[in-house]
Design goal:
The protein is of the alpha+beta class. Helices cover 51% and strands 14% of the residues. Helix 2 packs antiparallel against helix 7, helix 4 crosses helix 6 and helix 8 runs antiparallel to helix 9. The longest helix is centred in the middle third of the chain and has 47 residues. It is rod-shaped and about 150 Å long.
């Protein structure tokens, strides 16, 4: 139960934020060690370098804020202790790592320097002594350590051979001095280093977390888009946050229900077809007994039309080509083969050959849709001119004819199953009104559509749009 809750989107975001803060702290400390190693690179031991670097890290004993408070507290105590006992008491309460001296000798001014970090540290000590009366003034400088190696007058002193000296003049005139070793000149930049590190690490973790969360969401969006064109696609893998897993399970159940619904519908149509065949056969036998030849001929035509409608409907509903796997097909070659087959029968078909346009489709269905549009153009427009255009990420198969066209208010109605215009109800132009309906269904099953439009010079234009 607890693991399930931790797998939620909110829990993942919270864990990412916590992890970013922890890594930001570690990165800041690591950068501090790196800067400290750069500032103190010399022949000293690794222990000495680490000891100096810790001065600017988050160890409480050497934290600059707490160190300044410790020095300020020692100065306060020294100011309140009588001068004869001051040295002995301060030696007991002072930090043994920070030597304290009273009335130190005045060093040579040439060897002293001050930097931004040291001045900032001095201000931290001074702020904690400002409320004292009389006021105690604090000064700070860096001095060379006492080493056995001689240093030329023109040679710069390495940072590793310097110490920070903090001095304060007590109210009775005595001076107190603190020698702080290892106070790096980079110490004042620890907060910016930490903030920059935290921002960088947070952005990196946020990007990785967002990408990890977005991957199953993108897969879910792709599967949702695919559901409208392919119900036989495999179920979506259940993975991702808890909320998305529940959504994916519901999506897979919905896809399975839709698939069962279509299978049940196909079985129902097959059963209806079987039931209709018997009465139609009896009607044909009775029509054979009709004496009036003209009436008999009309009855036979109606029976043939009903049989054709049943056959076309069942062929479309139970089409095995819908189980055909999708594959990349050069649509130009496919349409060219259709046009060649129709032209071999003596029909007027003109094709502007195009090659190299690959489309992921079920070739048998696309063949049927294009063939239906060409067949309509030949029936009602006497000729068919076919070409293929590429429009961005879509390919358009255009079929033009020389017929009368279709009224604008009728252009959408003709896609209804078994709908035929009055001008098309010529017995010589056999058809049951399923050609355009089948073409649009096939196109939409592939993520495209079929559109009709009257040409300005006369005739009708039918376009099949398919995604590349």
């Amino acid at each position: 139960m607890i693991l399930s809750k931790l797998n939620g989107i909110a829990a993942r975001n919270a864990l990412a934020i916590v992890l970013a803060i922890i890594l930001g702290l570690l990165m800041a400390v690591g950068m501090s060690f790196g800067l400290g190693s750069y500032a103190f690179r010399d022949n000293r031991s690794p222990y000495s370098i680490s000891h100096r670097v810790v001065m600017i890290s988050f160890v409480a004993h050497r934290n600059v804020v707490m160190l300044s408070a410790e020095i300020a507290m020692t100065i306060r105590a020294a100011a309140s202790i009588p001068r004869p006992e001051r040295n002995k008491i301060i030696a007991l309460i002072a930090d043994p790592d920070i030597p304290v001296t009273f009335d130190p000798p005045v060093p040579l001014a040439d060897g002293a320097r001050i930097d931004f970090s040291l001045d900032r540290f001095r201000k931290l000590v001074q702020m904690q002594l400002d409320e004292l009366a009389p006021q105690i003034m604090v000064s700070a400088r860096r001095l060379p350590l006492q080493t056995n190696r001689p240093i030329d007058s023109g040679q710069s002193v390495p940072a590793s051979e310097e110490q920070a000296v903090i001095e304060a003049a007590l109210p009775d005139g005595q001076r107190i001095s603190f020698a702080v070793s290892g106070l790096s000149s980079f110490g004042g930049y620890l907060l910016p280093i930490f903030l920059v590190s935290l921002v960088l690490v947070t952005l990196l973790i946020a990007f990785l977390t967002g990408r990890r969360l977005a991957r199953p969401i993108r897969e879910f969006a792709t599967a949702s888009e695919r559901l409208g064109v392919d119900l036989t696609a495999p179920p979506l893998p259940v993975r991702g946050p808890r909320e998305l897993r529940a959504t994916i399970r519901a999506f897979n159940r919905m896809q399975e229900r839709l698939r069962r619904f279509l299978e049940d519908r196909t079985q129902m149509l097959a059963a209806i077809s079987h039931d209709l065949r018997a009465p139609l056969a009896r009607l044909r036998l009775r029509a054979e007994l009709v004496a009036d030849g003209e009436q008999q001929s009309k009855m036979f035509n109606d029976l043939d039309l009903m049989n054709a409608m049943i056959d076309s409907t069942l062929a479309f509903a139970r089409d095995d080509s819908r189980q055909e796997p999708r594959r990349l097909v050069d649509i130009g070659v496919l349409v060219g083969d259709i046009c060649e087959d129709v032209a071999d029968t003596g029909e007027k078909v003109f094709y502007m050959a195009v090659r190299g346009v690959d489309v992921a489709c079920r070739p048998t269905l696309i063949h049927r849709a294009v063939a239906n549009l060409i067949d309509n153009a030949l029936k009602y427009g006497c000729a068919a001119r076919v070409r293929i255009d590429r429009d961005g990420d879509r390919v358009v198969i255009i079929v033009d004819d020389d017929g009368p066209g279709i009224a604008v208010d009728e252009q959408e109605r003709v896609f209804a199953p078994f709908y035929r215009l009055a001008a098309a109800r010529d017995p010589c132009k056999a058809g049951v009104g399923l050609g355009l309906s089948v073409a649009r269904t096939v196109a939409r099953e592939h993520g495209g559509d079929v559109r009709l439009a009257n040409r300005s010079g006369g005739g009708l234009r039918a376009c099949i749009e398919l995604p590349v």
